Amino acid sequence: MRPRPSRTLGFLACALASSFWGCGFFFGKIALAEMNVGAMVFYRFGFAALVLAPFLFTHRPRFSASDWRALLICAFLGIPLQFLFQFSGLARTTVSHASLMIGTMPVLLAVAATLFAHERMDITGWLSLAVSTLGAALIAFGHESASHGAAHIAAQISTPSLSGDLLVVVSLVIALGWVLLNKHLVQTHSPITVTAYVTIAGTAMLAAVVPIMYGLPPIAHISLRSWLALAASGLLCTASTTLLWNWGIKQVPVSQAGVLLNMEPLVGSVLGVFLLGDVLGPTARGGGALILAAAILITTRSRTRVREQLPTP
């Protein structure tokens, strides 16, 4: 008998995943000081693949031919395509611009879940979504209005550009496909199995693509600080997050879980304050409060219907 989904634990897993994802740009920024985007993404997923590899032997897959096709498409979309686009965009624009656009992901995901997964959020869910998205926007604008501590860091990263902004937007559209295919796969297979096989397949694709596009990833002359950042990025921000997210979306509707994705820019901003000397203005602090309020509202008050699960008359 299939265990009954746990709504509370599912939301907690998705919130933790989104929070850990919020650390990804911080660790990536450290590594990008010594290597290009392709090498950084490759090493990030290389560390994640090493951790997940034992699951290939402990969790044997029972995928059909159509499942294998979905898994390989999911791996391609979610790893080489999404991350190379996203980090290439982040290298060309400011953190605040990228955060603003990443904050639109829950809206895109809710719409996609409505169209393709036949989920129907109630009015409380849509209200939570609007509040959370507004909070992400306020955090982005709060970064722009932050005082001197953040100014020199933002200058070191980049200046905003249309090409960088568009690359981040494209990466979000690609991420929608990854999320929905993952949701499809974990409905009938173990989240651990799906996570391990998708991550390792995607890393193998990176190994084929990165040397052609960016050259061979460097090994020598990389500092211990960067190796530790890459390991943390792979273990904490990739392997752990994907396991948590895939388990979480098996318990709760993906449209509701998507609201919690705005924990990512919130945590990224907090890291900026405590570790990079950033200064958040009152606008950004208000945005963080809205995101937390939306997270509480969506997890305690909202309900979502899935059309296929409704009883037929």
Please describe the structure with a list of short key phrases separated by commas or semicolons.
313 residues, mainly alpha, two-stranded antiparallel ribbon, 15 helices, 2 strands, disordered C terminus
What does this structure look like?
- The chain is mainly α and 313 residues long.
- The protein has one domain (11-306).
- 76% of the residues lie in helices and 2% in strands.
- It has helices spanning 7-21, 24-32, 37-52, 55-58, 65-90, 95-102, 105-116, 123-144, 148-157, 162-186, 191-214, 224-251, 254-259, 263-275, 282-300; strands spanning 119-121, 304-306.
- The chain has a two-stranded antiparallel ribbon with strand order 1-2.
- Helix 1 (7-21) packs antiparallel against helix 12, helix 3 (37-52) packs antiparallel against helix 11 and helix 6 (95-102) runs parallel beside helix 10.
- The chain is globular.
Based on CA atoms alone, the radius of gyration comes out at 19 Å
Which overall shape is indicated by the principal axes computed on the Cα atoms? globular
Q: How many β-strand stretches?
A: 2
Q: Portion of residues in helices?
A: over 70%
Strands side by side in the biggest sheet = 1-2
Q: Termini separation (Å)?
A: 26 Å
- Average pLDDT: 81
Could you tell me the strand content as a percent range? Answer: under 5%
Which regions are unreliable across 5 or more consecutive residues at pLDDT < 50?
144-157, 308-313
How many strands, which pairing sense, and closed or not: the largest β-sheet? 2 strands, antiparallel
SSE string, helices as H and strands as E: HHHHHHHEHHHHHHHHE
State the secondary-structure class: mainly alpha
Number of discrete domains: 1
Put simply, the count of helices is 15
